[in-house]
Write a structure and sequence with these properties.
Layout: E1 3-13, E2 18-26, E3 30-34, E4 40-44, E5 52-55, E6 61-62, E7 66-69, E8 75-79, E9 83-90, H1 95-100, H2 120-134, H3 140-159, H4 175-187, H5 195-202, H6 206-217, H7 221-237, H8 243-249, H9 255-266, H10 270-277
Antiparallel strand pairs: 1-2, 2-9, 3-8, 4-7, 4-9, 5-6, 5-8
Helix pairs in contact: 2-3, 4-5, 5-6, 7-9, 8-9
Length: 279
């Protein structure tokens, strides 16, 4: 299926960075070879459970969450979603190379390292800039420039870390254990799963399952659970359930706690998101 519509909700540009909040709409499940000429850091706002994958000729990896599009490298993208909302931060041609000192040969040597990045600082920065362009204020360009410089340094550190980080991982969860945990998290309603509960499913200690989950996915269990709850919240906000009922269903103790968590994850108040999602 083809891309049906691209809706740019907001966009601002500084010498270092262009930040956009974009909705992509397809007419059904889709796959294509996509090339973006600029290096870009992004955060999908309808995250795990992932329905979008990307590959560079090898096995596909999760596209959703926090990621880095490696410049002009053409990659195969596929999604089963009908729409995808993305906070997108792109560097103009030559800017990232100049900032990091890697010159024109600056490349992402291993495209698999570019997706499902577990970096809370980068994630918070992308979400903060997305919030800023929706509601610009005093010194917005300065804030964006600062965010762009921080992201350039962090993504360079991530992709240029010592080779030891590419060695095969040991001590992570088996595919069956990982699937058991993620399926259980995806299926629950009306409560938030505990670490004790998830560890019991696979017969491991709480400490071991937390360490092994992060080693296998690059994310903490809390981050993964938060993303699942945010994705569920986005789906429920398209309907007519009151905020309190949605919060109860997602295991929050009150509507205000749900609203605060949703705002932290997406940069939006739930009511604002609901109006936007309904067009």
């Amino acid at each position: 299926m083809a891309l049906q519509e691209t809706i740019v909700e907001a966009e601002l540009t500084t010498p270092t960075l262009t930040v956009r909040l974009v909705n992509f709409v397809w007419d059904g499940p889709s796959e294509l070879v996509y090339r973006h000429d600029e290096y870009a850091l992004y955060r999908t706002l309808m995250p795990i459970p992932s329905r979008s994958r990307v590959s560079a000729g090898g096995s596909p990896v999760d596209f959703e969450g926090l990621g880095f599009w490696p410049g002009p490298t053409p990659l195969h993208f596929e999604t089963s979603r009908s729409s995808l909302r993305i906070a997108h931060c792109s560097f103009p041609e030559g800017r990232l190379e100049a900032l990091t000192g890697f010159g024109e040969s600056w490349t992402a040597d291993n495209p698999r390292d570019c997706f499902a990045i577990g970096n809370d600082l980068l994630e918070r920065t992308v979400l903060r800039l997305a919030e800023e362009i929706l509601r610009p204020g005093f010194a917005t360009p300065l804030l964006m420039e600062g965010g762009g410089l921080l992201m350039a340094a962090e993504i360079a550190r991530h992709l240029r870390a010592p080779p030891v980080r590419h060695r095969a991982k040991t001590g992570g969860l088996s595919p069956r254990e990982l699937r058991t945990i993620t399926d259980h998290i995806a299926d629950i309603d009306y409560r938030c799963p505990t670490i004790q509960e998830l560890a019991g499913l696979v017969g491991l200690s709480e400490r071991h399952v937390m360490r092994a989950f992060k080693q296998s996915t690059g994310l903490t269990l809390k981050t993964h659970i938060d993303r699942v709850r945010t994705a569920r919240a986005c789906d429920l906000l398209r309907g007519d359930l009151p905020l309190k009922a949605i919060g109860d269903r997602l295991g929050f103790s009150s509507a205000s706690h749900f609203a605060a968590a949703f705002r932290k994850a997406t940069g939006h108040n739930p009511n604002v998101y609901r109006r936007s999602a309904r067009g």
